[in-house]
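Are you able to produce any protein sequence you like plus the matching backbone structure tokens because I've never seen that pairing?
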Amino acid sequence: VQLQASGGGLVQAGGSLRLSCAASGFRPGDLGIGWFRQAPGREREGVSYIRSGHSTYYADSVRGRFTISRDNAKNLVYLQMNSLRPEDTAVYYCAAGQPVASAMFTSSMYYHWGQGTQVTVSS
């Protein structure tokens, strides 16, 4: 199983970015995909999660601004990030797993991780 995140960059506050996570080595319907982020000096935190059946979940800090979606035909998962804030600056990671509902933003629930992509939001 391989996951590759891309789409990060530098954007001004209020701007938008779309991250992509390309997955291979498993059937799209078998695993959910989560997005996590880690800022310098801070713990990794869950941002969003999409089940194989397309149900979506968001951390309170991004709900209403970020949208997760998946294209199972292409085995791609996207994270559309709008109204970005400086506090969204972090390395963003995608991960595959089958977390239980009470722990969908718990890193240990995920089996496979991609490399991160840097998102920097300037004020």
Remarks:
- The longest strand covers residues 17-24.
- The chain is about 0% helix and 50% strand.
- The chain has a mean pLDDT of 94.
